[in-house]
Batch of 3 targets.
Target 1
Amino acid sequence: RMARAAQEMMGNSEIAGLRTAPKKELEEADQGTGGASDDIGEVSWNVPTVRLRYAANIPGMTAHHWSSGIAMATPIAHKGSNYASRILAMTALDLLTTPRLLADARQYFNDVQTKNAKWVSLIPRGTEPPTFLNAEQMRAVRPRLEALKYDPSRYATYLEQLGIEYPTVRAGTNAPPAAPARPQN
C-alpha cells in the first residue's frame, strides 16, 4: 500500500506497488559506466567486483529525491537488505571454499572487463585526505548526528525512536498522511 501510495503521489503512470518476483537473469554492465551510482568505482577498476542490486526501495521513484528515501526506514528496506546480506554471505562462502571461482573472476576481469580500458587515479600517489578542510564543521555537526544515532537500549526500532508508526498510509486510501512531528531529544 505504501509503495502504491508513493507511486501515485509522484504521478507515476504505472501504479504497481512492489515487485513480487525477482529477475531471473544476471545482467552484465559496462565496467564502471551506466546504471545506478555507487562508491566502489575505483575498487571495481582494480579488482574483480560484483554489484548486487536488491529490492529495498519503491520502484518508479526519482533518484536522489525524498521519494526515493522514504522507504529506507521501513520494513521494505529491512526485508530487502536482510535477504541481500544473506546472498552476500553465501557468495563470500562460495569464493572462500571454491578457489577456481576466484581464478575465473580474475581471468574475466583481466581478459574482458579491463582488457581495453585501464583505470588511472586523478589524485597523485601519496596525497593525504584533506580532512582538515572541514574539521571545524564536523566538530559542530557531530553532536547533532550523535543524537540521531539509533539507541537499541531505549527503542525497539529506529522508526519508534523517530516517532513514526508503520505503515504510515491511512487505511482505505493510497494517499499518505502528513508526516508526524519528530520528537526532540
Target 2
Amino acid sequence: MFENSTYNIFKRLALIGAVLALCVVVLGAYVRLTDAGLGCPDWPGCFGTMTVPESETAIANAQQHFPEQAVQVGKAWREMAHRYLAGTLGLVVLALFAFSIKLRKHAGVSVTFTTTLLLLITFQALLGMWTVTMLLKPAVVTSHLIGGMSTLALLTWLAHRHWWGHCSDTIINYPHQKRYIRIALLVLFAQIFLGGWTSTNYAALACTDFPTCHGSLWPDMNFKDAFTFMRPLGEHANGSAITLESITAIQWVHRIGAVVTLIYFLLLSLYMMKFWQLRTNTLLLMTLLLTQVGLGISNLVLHLPLMLAVAHNMVAALLVIVLVTINSKITGKK
C-alpha cells in the first residue's frame, strides 16, 4: 500500500514536471525575445536580492551596488519569473530522484534515468548563470535552449511511460524501421539548435523576403565566421563586429534545415500512418509541423512580431513532446 501511494506521487510529479518544463521553455523564449535575459545583472538574485527592486529606496540601493545597469522593473520581473519557475522545476526533478530511490525495485522506475535528469537540470542551472555572467554569449544561450528541450523530452518520456501503458515493441517489428523514428528526434533537435543559433545571434531578420534572401536564392554569405561557436554576442572570434554576410548565413542555414526537416517528417508521417496505433500522434505531428512552417514564414515577412515568435518556440516544444511520445509508444516496457 505504501509503495503504491509513493508510486502515485512519483507519477504525478513526472506529469507536473513535463508541464512545468514546457512552461519554462516557452517563458524562456519570451524572456529572450523581449531582451530581458539581462534584466537582472546578477544570479540567482536580482540586483542583490531574491526579488525585484521596485520602491524608490530599493531602486536607489540597487543602482548604488550595480551602477553599470539601470533597473528596468518589467524586464527584471520577466527574468525572475523565469528563474522562479525553473527553480520549481528543479525541485520537482529532485523529488523525482528521491522517490525513484525509494521505488528502485518497482517495475519501470529507473534511478539511472532520474539521476541523468537531475544532472541535466543542474547543468541547466549553470547555463542559466553563465547566460548572465557571460553576457548572453550565443553558445551559452543556445546550449541553454537545447538543455531545456532535452529536459522537456526526458520528462515527457518519463510521464508517458508511467501514465499511458500502450507501449509495445510490436507496433513496428523491424529495428531499421524504428530507427527512422529515432533519427527524427536528432533531425528535430538539429533544427532547434539552428533556430536557437539564429535567435541568439539576432539573425532572424537578416533577410525578410521569402523564398529569396536579399532578392537572391544564394545571397552573399560568410559561413566560416557565422558558425564559430565560442565568441561574444555580436562579434566575430577576432573581436570585430559581426557582418551582415555572417548573420545571413546563419538564417539561410536555418531555412535549409527547415526544408530538410519538413521533407523528412512528411515522408516519415506517411510511413507511420500505416500503423493505427500511431495515426492520432502522426496527424498531430503533421499539423504541428505545417503550423511551424507557417509561423516561420510569417515571422519573416511580418518582421518578427512577439507573439508569433514565442509561438514558433512553443510549437517546437510541442513537436518534441509528440515525437518523444511516438518513440515511447514503439518501445516496449521493461
Target 3
Amino acid sequence: MRRIYHFGLVTVWLAIAAALLLRGLDYYVLPLPERPFAPGHGTYDPAGRMGNRLGIAGAALMAVGVLLYSTRKRWPLLHGAGKLRDWLSLHIFMCTLGPFLIVLHASFRVQGLVAIAFWSMMVVVASGIIGRYVYVRIPRSLNGNARTKEELESEQRALLEVVRRHAGAHATQLERWLLPVPQYSGVVTALGSAALLDLGERRVERRLIRVLTALPIDQAVREQLLSGVQRLRRLNRERALLEPFQRLFGYWHAFHLPLAIVMLLVLAVHIGVAVAFGYAWTP
C-alpha cells in the first residue's frame, strides 16, 4: 500500500510539472530580450495571469506542506493519524512541487531578491531530500521511535538461527552474504557508503537468487532463505549506519529548519514587495 501511495505522489508530481512546463514552453525558451514582444508575455511573465497564479500556488504549497508536517509531528492528537514517514513524503511532495511552480512563476529568470529566495529555496529542497533519505534509513519500532543497536543485534541473532536451520548443510554457502558492514565513524563516509550499498543491492540480490536457485532445496525453503538473508543484510547495514545516521539527522535538523524559516521570510518579503508595487492577483 505504501508503494502505491509513493508511486501516486511521484506520478501526480510529474504530471502536474510536465503539463505546466509544456503549456508555457514556447515562452520559457525565448531569450529574455524577446519575451516582452511574445504573444504569451501577458500570460507567463511573473506578473502575467498564469505566472502570477503559479507564484501564489507555489508559495501556498510550501507553506501548507511545512504547516501540515510540523503539526502532525508536534501535535499529540495527530500522532495516530498515519505514519510520520508518510507525512514526510507528503511534505516533500508539496515542498518540491511548490518551488518548481515558483521557478515557472519566475519564468526561469532568477535575479535580484528573487535570486536570494530561489537559491535559499533550492538549498532547502536539496537538504530536505537528503534528510528524508537519512530519516527512512534509521530503523524504527511500530510506535515510530528509533531502535537501539542492542535491539537490532538481538533480532539479527534470532533471524540468523532461523536461516541456519532452514539452510541446513548449505548454511556455509550463505555465510559470505552475511558479512558485517564496516563500522563508520564519519557521517559523510556513512552517507556515501549507504548510497553505494543501495545502488549495488539489486545486483547483489540477483546473484543471491542465482546461488539459492542452484541449491537442491524446496521452493518454499528457498523463498524463506531469500527473505531471511535479505533481512539479515538489511539489519547489518542498519546496525552499522545507526549511530552516524542519528548524528547526521541531528545536524540536518539543526540546519534545515532555520534555513526553511529564512526562505519563508525572504519569500514573504518578495510577496510584500510585489503587492506594494501592484503585482497582486490577476483575474
